[in-house]
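ESCALATION

Customer reports they have been waiting on this structure for their group meeting. Please prioritize. Original submission:
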Amino acid sequence: MSNVERMEKPGFFGRLTGWHVLGFFLLFFGIVFGANGYMAYWAISTFSGIEINDAYQKGRAYNHNLEAMKAQQKLGWTADIEEELVLGAGNKTHLQVRFADAGGAPLTGLRVNGTFWRPVAQGGDRTLDLVQTAPGLYEGDTDLQWTGNWLVRISAEGPRGEKFIQEKRVLIGR
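Update from on-call: job pushed to the front of the queue and completed.
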């Protein structure tokens, strides 16, 4: 069998032509673009909306945050956060926090504020100063724009500059 006869003999898929190569090329890139399009659609449609401002600065402050958490743990303070929706004029949300020291005694003389914020919607955050109404009990009211999931961040400062921060996820419903 001569070389010419070997070249003209069809292969496993038949004779390979330029149209076959073009078809395989288009099929390959069609699959690649289809898979990329599907993954891009899936990524965009499942984005939760959580955004972090100043991520670089927060990353640089990481060690400082760890030191602050250790100092807070040494204090031994605890905070029991409770919230309730008070139906009536304005549908106020009542926030109540009970502070205790390491021995369980109520903490008095703190400056306390609370922040309600939604991780998926901007513009509805509310900050309020809490007032001490009983030994270790701090309370305040605010009007929240929406029902649903909120994060409550409590920050307290003691008379000697001690700092305490705690967060809790709450569900506000009407």
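Sent to customer with the following note: The mean pLDDT is 83.
Escalation resolved.
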